[in-house]
Amino acid sequence: MPERSNLWGGTFDITLEMEDQSIENGHRHYYDRSAYQSPLEDEVKQGWLLRPAMDMEMKRKKKKRCFNINPTVLIRTLVVVAVLAGFVALVAFLATHRHHHRPPPVQDNYTIALQRALMFFNAQRSGKLPAKNNVSWRGDSCLDDGNGYLNGLEGGYYDGGDAVKYSFPASFAMTMLSWSVLEYSAKYETTGELNHVKDIIRWGTDYLLKTFNSSADTIDKIVLQVGKNSPENCWIRPESINYPRPVILCSTCPALAAEMAAALAAASIVFKDDHKYSKKLVHGADILFKFATKGEGERYAGGSDPPSNFYNSSGFWDEFVWGGAWMYCATGNSSYIDLVTSPGLAKHAKAFWGGPDHGVLGWDNKHAGAQLLMSRLRMFLDFGYPYEEMLKNFHEQISEIICSYLPGSHNFRRTNGGLIELNHGKPKPLQYVTNAAFLATLYADYLEATLTPGWQCGAKFYPKDEFRDFAKTQIDYILGRNLRHMSYVVGFSDHFPQYVHHKGASIPGYIKHQSCQEGLRWKESKKPNPNTIVGAMVGGPDKHDGFQDNRSNYNFTEPTIAGNAGLVAALVALLDGSKTGIDKNAMFYAIPPFSMSRLPPPPVGKP
């Protein structure tokens, strides 16, 4: 700690001053006692001892010097010192307690990247923007969305660069962000981003609550999408949109509804201290999950989600497991864990099927996320019968998945630059890579929290740090440690994509209103985007580490909120966690103490 100093930069050591009792030229003189050395020290001492004779001395015309401590000056000095010390103490107290002052954290690469990745969500906001949105080139937009539908559909997030709001990926993004907060709230707080990320989540969940009748007990429809991709001959900022924005509703959409339930359930735990809002989220999640399953659970016989131009769901059983697991964490209602651990549901979901997308967590495939979440229940809570067998299966499956990410596994190819090809060489690979990095780091932290040194992957034992190292290599690749030496996160490092597929970023902010055709010149411009969309993670390179920085090629250059949510989760997980690991208990706050009320049946043939 630095040496404490007073308001003027000196120390708090006090030197008393002595007063000269004699008068020279009509002035009274003061001396520093520690610096003054009297040439007549013996005479001074005698003067102190012979004070009764001072009357005679005063009659002498010769002036003699003597020294004494004036009580009035001493008292005044002590009073001033006390007042100054009290003032300094008050300032220190107010700085510490009123403003919650903390020493500034060390800004490493992951911290900087995290702060910028969160800023991307500010740039994607729709509706009436808050005063401190901190994106100068964005303004209010699409204020009339959903007029005539319930209380309107203003707000939420644009999915990518074309100003369309999709409920499916937005819900997955909010679920991932909430999960990261529940595990790593201490790390968010250390970086000063906890309130920011919670504000991002709430902006998203406030909108999701508008997409259905969240105050009712039952619902028969939810909003699938607001807006549509504008025609090819239209390139316009969200703030200038004046064409109709249709609201697409859905009456049978089990995957979407279950994912929305997961988002609201996870967020209800994040906002558990705001009892009214948390209760509202839980209620919304409950009616969404019932709408998704029609109350039939594993016996669901309804239809699938309708087709869409983008974000088509390949199935819904995995969302039933994922959503049900989050519902159990948010409510503690045993009916949810009964459902998600039922062998019939796992069979429907193909939870233990080793297909090509096994272990690839994304907006459409929740298997790996659900399995890790269920394994968390097993690792930190002692459930026993009748849940142990299925929880153990989930635990074994996620362990195999995490092992499959390691370089020694042959499940997934890697580019020459080292990027794991989780989507098998298809476009937009980075969104899956960041999710895998988050799962691997979280898995390592679960091992750390249970004092488990590592895990056996086939014939080889891997220390837990190997899983974290995998995550680091992938995130480092995204941040610039690749063959192109390019950061795929905009605004991070000096070399990043300049032609991001994003209408708002590609048109100067001073242009307030324009037609679709007038904006085409900015789409076709050979100049870099005039606005830097800080923190946006673009789609990423191809399987040969190649990248086309081309505004028209969205496979390479378009960012999405689902992709950035995974990036944020991975980055906060990878922050130095030697003293701030996971929060083992926050996620389980609603789960009551487990009681072994149901004992396993006796072995066959025995009474």
Question: Could you describe the 3D structure shown?
Answer:
The protein is mainly alpha-helical and 607 residues long. It is built from 19 helices and eight strands. Strands 2-1-3 form a three-stranded antiparallel beta sheet, with no helix packed on it. Strands 4-5-6 form a three-stranded antiparallel beta sheet. α4 (109-123) packs antiparallel against α19. It starts with 16 loop residues before the first strand and ends in a 33-residue tail after the last helix. Residues 1-67 and 97-106 have low confidence and may be disordered. The active site is at 501, 549, 558.
Report the sheet-strand fraction.
under 5%
What structural category do the secondary elements indicate?
mainly alpha
Largest sheet: 3 strands, antiparallel
Low-pLDDT ranges: 1-67, 97-106
In spatial order, strands of the major sheet run 2-1-3
Average pLDDT, all residues: 85
Backbone shape: globular
Break the fold down into its secondary structure elements and pairings.
Blueprint: E1 17-20, E2 30-32, H1 41-49, H2 54-59, E3 67-68, H3 71-98, H4 109-123, E4 165-166, H5 167-191, H6 194-210, E5 222-226, E6 247-250, H7 254-270, H8 275-293, H9 317-331, H10 334-340, H11 343-349, H12 367-380, H13 388-404, H14 430-449, E7 454-457, E8 460-463, H15 464-479, H16 503-506, H17 516-523, H18 554-557, H19 561-574
Antiparallel strand pairs: 1-2, 1-3, 4-5, 5-6, 7-8
